[in-house]
Design goal:
This protein is of the alpha/beta class and 258 residues long. The protein is built from eleven helices and five strands; from the N terminus they run αααααβαβαααβαββα. The protein has a five-stranded parallel β-sheet with strand order 2-3-4-1-5, sandwiched between helices. β3, α10 and β4 form a beta-alpha-beta unit. α5 packs across α6. The longest helix is centred in the middle third of the chain and has 14 residues. The chain is globular and about 70 Å long. The relative contact order is 0.13.
């Protein structure tokens, strides 16, 4: 077996920066370019097993990303879901424009369902970290920091590895976490956000990460939250037609009677 030591930069009519972006997975390979340029540069035949395999891998790399398994933490849709696509679209638009959105409203109006639908949609092109805030369980700084680090690590980020492996000081953990968040688009969803009012340390960490990264934030809350530069969208109950649809589904009645 002959082993060739080649410089792709010298063998290909593309710049070193383009090769670097391919190596760092910042740009997906073009199957046509792989077949026309890379295969000959590697002294392979297009009909060979290795040549065909390279082209297949390039095609696979350009497929849409599969949503993260972390979406299992996102609450599933209710059994009798009444789609509220207009509200989900409004939340998505606010996230794109403002980056920080609080969904406010009374208990039971559907804040969590709307936030979950938004998270599933956004997972197509970004990391989604969903945290259901619970006193004594997830409403602590270590729990939030570790949760974010775990999800970034599962998406291939090595920057946050020390956060999971060593007892670092909080400022160092946040520095590494911010570096990981800066490397990829991320949406942080905090359900039961009204609990943050009684957890100033957790709120301070959220403030810090928002100030030092481009992370998107979506919070559901029953009360007003003091988050700087945050858009607030008030969620009300169902429209009459949607309410009748839900009542009919729950009771098994004709829509008109419901």
């Amino acid at each position: 077996t002959e082993i060739y030591t080649l410089s792709l930069h010298d063998a290909l009519p593309i710049c070193e920066a383009q090769i670097s972006r391919l190596e760092q997975r910042r740009r997906p390979p073009d199957p046509v370019a792989v077949a026309a340029l890379f295969v000959p540069a590697l002294r392979l035949s297009r009909e060979s097993v290795a040549g065909r395999r390279l082209v297949e891998l390039a095609k696979h790399a350009r497929k849409p990303a599969v949503p993260s398994v972390e979406l299992t933490d996102v609450p599933p849709p209710p059994s009798h879901l009444v789609p509220r696509d207009d509200v989900v679209a409004a939340v998505t638009g606010l996230l794109a424009a403002e980056r920080r959105v609080v969904l406010g409203g009374l208990p039971g109006v559907g804040k969590t369902t709307i936030a979950a639908a938004t998270a599933r949609n956004r997972a197509a092109d970004r990391v989604v970290c969903w945290v259901t805030l619970t006193e004594g369980v997830t409403l602590t700084v270590p729990a939030l920091v570790r949760r974010l680090a775990l999800i970034l690590a599962r998406h291939g980020d090595t920057t946050v590895a020390p956060v999971l492996a060593y007892p670092l000081a909080l400022d160092e953990r946040l520095r590494l976490l911010a570096a990981g968040l800066a490397a990829r688009p991320t949406l942080l969803c905090l359900d039961n956000g009204h609990l943050l009012a009684s957890a100033p340390a957790v709120l301070a960490v959220v403030h810090h990460l928002l100030a030092t990264t481009a992370t998107e934030l979506l919070v559901t809350s029953r009360v007003h939250l003091s988050l700087p530069d945050t858009a607030v969208l008030r969620v009300s109950g169902l429209r009459p037609d949607s309410a009748r649809e839900l009542a009919a589904a729950l009771a098994g009645l004709p829509v008109a009677l419901a």
